[in-house]
Amino acid sequence: MENDYLDSVIKQFEYYKMLGEETFSQLQDDKLFLQYNDDSNSIAMIVKHLWGNMLSRWTDFLTSDGEKAFRDRDAEFENDIKSREELLDKWNEGWTCLFDAINSLTTDDLGKIIYIRNQGHTVTEAINRQLAHYPYHIGQIVYLGKMLAENGWVSLSIPKRNSQKYNEYKFSKPKQKRHFTDEFLNNNKE
């Protein structure tokens, strides 16, 4: 059962990584850096924050506090990424750090105590904390992407006005375990 937890966590993180990447692919480069006002974040700033958080939380995950001395959280909210390539490098570096850490875990690790800002968490709690945090920010990325897409937004879920068609398709198939790729969605994007 516990192996199912780690497998499920990996699939969930992969799904949210994909949502971010599908959003980036729909935007012109300049839209990735657009900041509506001084109190808002650009997509690049959100990516930079996720990158900083991931490197801090997942580096030496089992052996050091998740808030690393090298992290400069305030700088994560400076809009200074200069290119799509730099944005994608940070994005991929953060996710690689996360997946390397999770893939090294065993079920025996799940009950161990790790610290984030000197506060104890079981490994399961620490993973769940990030599994709530990252989708929050990736939702912001997707929301911004929908507003900034100039060539029309291609839905990343069930497209508007297609719920009935989607349900008919899903209920026409035998029951199955959930997969994060969906051939209906891949073939019926707006």
Task: Describe this protein's structure.
The structure is a single chain. The chain has helices at about 1-25, 45-60, 85-105, 125-150, 165-170, 185, and strands at about 115, 120. With about 190 residues, the protein is mainly alpha-helical. A two-stranded antiparallel sheet has the order 1-2. The radius of gyration is 18 Å and the shape is flat. The termini are far apart.
Mean pLDDT figure = 92
> What portion of the residues fall into strands of 2 or more residues?
under 5%
Computed over alpha carbons, the radius of gyration is: 18 Å
Strand-and-helix sequence, N→C? HHHEEHHH
* Helix content class: 40-55%
Structural class based on helices, strands and sheet pairing:
mainly alpha
Q: Can you tell me the overall shape?
A: flat
Spatial sequence of strands, sheet with the most strands: 1-2
Unreliable runs: none
For the sheet with most strands, the description reads:
2 strands, antiparallel
Number of strands: 2
Number of helices: 6
Blueprint of the fold:
Layout: H1 2-25, H2 43-58, H3 84-103, E1 113-116, E2 119-122, H4 123-148, H5 163-171, H6 183-187
Antiparallel strand pairs: 1-2
Helix pairs in contact: 1-4, 2-3, 2-4
Quick synopsis:
With 190 residues, this protein is mainly alpha-helical. 53% of the residues lie in helices and 4% in strands.
Keywords:
190 residues, 6 helices, mainly alpha, flat
